[in-house]
Amino acid sequence: QANPGEASIVSYWGQSITSYQKDRQICEYGCLYPPTQVRYLPSLTVSTGANLLGTTENNLVSIYDTRTPKGCQKRIKAGNQPILALTSAGPTTIGCGGSDRSLFTIDVRKWSILSRFQGITKYEITALRESRRTPNSVYVISLDHEVLLAKCAASKTTKESIGSHLTRQGLRGDSRWLGVDVVPACGDDLQERSVAEADAKEVVDKHEGRGTAPGEDFVGVTDTGRFYLIKDSWRMAPGGNEEK
After folding, report:
1. Whole-prediction pTM value?
2. Contact predicate 213/133, CB 8 Å
3. HSE on the CB side for 12, CA within 13 Å?
4. What mean pLDDT, rounded, does the chain reach?
């Protein structure tokens, strides 16, 4: 969700995306391939001023702006196998991954692949969540019970250095993850704010050189019915025990 009361859904068989403002349909877009996931991209929304959402369509990441009737703004090819998950990874990058177990970083300034981390998980990537505490980092969830925090490249990579710009560290649940999210830390002064408001405040603070990044916790449910709350999950990042 980007704006309060706004939500979007995808229809796999209908090959479409529909966005709603509360109970009112505001737009509907056709997709090139059957979509498998739709995600609002709050960090990109804040930095560009657009209301952006992304979808995974086969091996493509498609970007839409719900403020315009134009439809798809851009499509980027990421590998040759189906992409199953995506998320914003900072004000200028998108993270995506899927069946080939690779984590791609897309530079939205040039709409091109910035880096690719091959074989980051044992099984295909099913979900990605942006870390608001650790810059240019995403939580990577695979088909089994693994969750990682990977730091994406913030600069250009070459064929020789691909993969060396990303580092990872993680843990395992007791079973396969069914649903996951990243939330403001308990006791954090942003806990009553919406996710979009928290993202907006963080981007402004960083841009103006004031304040500190908010804390965050990882929450998830596995198919055994167990609920996980990982306090200060950003510490899974390399060097995460150092306060920022």
Report:
1. 0.77
2. yes
3. 4
4. 78
